[in-house]
Amino acid sequence: MESQTSQFLDLYRTGVRTASDVMKASLESAERMQNQQLQLIRSALEEQSKSVSQLAECRSMDDLLALQARLTGSQAQKLMDYWSGIWRVAGDNQMAAARLAASQVQAVSGSLRDSMHGSTGQAANHEKRPEPQRKSA
Predict the structure, then answer these.
(1) Is the distance from CB of 32 to CB of 89 less than 8 angstroms?
(2) Out of 7, 74, 84, 132, which residue is the most buried by the measure of CB atoms under 10 Å away?
(3) Taking the mean position of all CA atoms in its chain, how far away is CA 3?
């Protein structure tokens, strides 16, 4: 009974440790995504101030159309970079979750294997004990 209690506690500790690791990975992922978004906002602010100064320098419709074409290309590129970064972070999160799940499965299977070997050994010990012989009167 003592070994079952300790095995249960080991499984519980492993589960809590894994939940903590998953939470940590999730929070780190959220931090990476927020940092990426913050960088994008800073970049957009810089781009906007450059665009305003370039717009002020336009003297003809041709200059304005050329500026618009440049800005559109730049914005499309930034948009693609942003979404590729989001998908990269999401993929990294899935990889981290898969690694955590695999380690959890290994830990639980190891605990169960140890539990089975322990209970098999206890059952074998019970079977080896000779039952007391009854003396007939």
Answers:
(1) yes
(2) 7
(3) 33
- Residue 61 has a pLDDT of 92
Residues 109 and 14: beta-carbon distance below 8 Å: no
CB 96 within 8 A of CB 29: yes
Return the closest-CA partner of residue 106 out of 7, 11, 8, 2.
11
Q: How far apart are CA 56 and CA 91, in angstroms?
A: 42
Cα distance between residue 63 and residue 106, in whole Å: 64
- Confidence tier at 118 by pLDDT (50, 70, 90): low
Q: What whole-number distance in Å separates Cα of residue 103 and Cα of residue 22?
A: 11
Q: Cite the beta strand spans of the chain per DSSP E.
A: none
User: Mutual orientation of helices 61-128 and 2-57 as an angle, nearest 10°?
Assistant: 180
